[in-house]
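User: ok so my PI wants both of these folded by tonight, can you help

Assistant: No problem, let's get them done. Here's the first:
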Amino acid sequence: MRKILFVFVFTSLLFANEKLDKITFGGPFASVSHPFFHMIETNALSDIAKKVEFKLWKNPDELRALVLNGDVNFMAIPTNVAANLHNKEQQIKLLNVSVWGILGMISRDKNIKSLKDFKGKEIAIPFRADMPDIVFEEILKAQGLKPKKDFKLRYLSSPIDAMQMLIMRRVDHALLAEPAISIALRKTKSFPIKLVAPDLYRSVNLQEEWAEVFKTEAKLPQAGIAVLGETVSKAQIIERFEQEYQKSLQWYKDNPKEAGELAAKNLKMLDANGVADSIEHTNLDYVKAQDAKEDLKDFFEILHKSNPKTIGGKLPTSDFYYKAN
């Protein structure tokens, strides 16, 4: 009996410590994904995986395809999309929120000081009906404006496309997520400010506008990391991932020059200096999903009241927020 018990325990320990053949991260080109590159570069998860790779999603449709196909273990994801997938009975749990402020307006008009000042103007916006469009519309509706009637909205498939429209002077205003804002300023030599008037200006901060209309802090639980599929049940793997993601996020914040170079090395559409600039303008703070639950609930309640479809028709249940056993 003792021999059988010993064999069982020994075999269980071997299985528990067995490396995965591969761990796959998924994410957009935005800041929430950038700590992944440091994790891969430093072999941070070599104790639990033989190989670690990154898969880029360029728009929410590609994100959803990666989830449905079971192609990723950990996903950098807008929080409302994670809630939406959870409500559609996908195997997904939110681990953390790390991006609390990444959205802003960029314009050729330095005199624009609020979203109301854009009334009647054409604005390029990526990701229709997803972040950042959701935040933009909620602020305007709270201000008594009608987004589709009071503004000329030009929807594009990604922040890169919107940024390119600005650079090519095909639009004068855009709603972007960092690092696209900082990269656009760099590419047009608008930053650092040149002697002649800059071509583009960093305009309205959407987090500050949100705080004003909803009487809250200038931060929003916009994006974080979710665990997917069978990995949801692998507590040891999740714990190691969380430890290393938190470390790499801190490294990213503390080393903007090196972080910019690393991000540009992995994503050729990025500009190293632009990424480095963007870190100062992005509210990055690692908070476990359980600890961010109240902020997330407040955010989701606003979205649910306005347009339930953005979070899958209902508030996510408590098991959406990952909790270690």
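One down. Here's the second:
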Amino acid sequence: MRNNKAYLSLGTAAIGRPQYINIREKKARSDLSLEEFRKRGLALIQQAYEAGIRYFDTAPGYGLAEDLLIQWLKTLDNPNLEVATKWGYTYTANFDPNATQHEVKEHSLNKLNEQWQRSKALLPYLSTYQIHSATFDTGVLENVAVLTRLAELKEEYGLRIGLSSTGSNQLEVVQRSLDVEVNGIPLFDAFQVTYNVLDQSLAPLLKALAKEGKRVIIKEALANGRVFPNSEYAHYQELYQRLTYLAQQHEVGIDAIALQFCRQTVQPLRQYPKKRVIKK
């Protein structure tokens, strides 16, 4: 959100690596060359830009995606464009759709510094730098060295520092992150969270974050494709009927209804937890 108004952005995971998690009507093509895959990714970014998208989200863990944006941005001069990226995942599948492991998660100081060396090429368009899928398991919200380094990047480059969250305890992760301060200053300014008609666990929190001046980035707003009618999800049939009805009434696609739902249904938070100070 910017100035308490929601706007659309483009997430680049699916154009940077094959077989990204999503519901597809047809099996993904496996005969595309890497060069053709790259060309299609660049074309989609340009198409989004021409359609009015001015916020692009990427990560090293998205295969080619971050490099595609770095390449594409060299052709632009638009101060109204913003890019967000993340650190903490390394893409390992080497564009093999049959790979058994597609990514490795590591929230260490070494990984942060390593990935920052490439990600900083997104400057001056880079506005938001996030921990990729922050969880309690990795201890990243307790890692003083990592949090201090993020605070240094925030101050030096004028970045929003944020995190993305996922899983059943994302509410607890976001609430814990609100505690974190470095030298008395709250560290996190941006929160990329899963929220859609099928997962409303963060509804009590999102509007409050925006009111506090935090940036809220909703991911998986279409539930990885599950909002579209699919015979394999019989337990969603009532939802499909309702979404289809609303789409017909407003003469738009189901995706537009699902996105509008995300914009309109967040509720205020009653209170925040106490702060925990982390010093150098």
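The first helix runs from residue 13 to 16. The CA atoms of residues 19 and 44 lie 17 Å apart. Good luck tonight!
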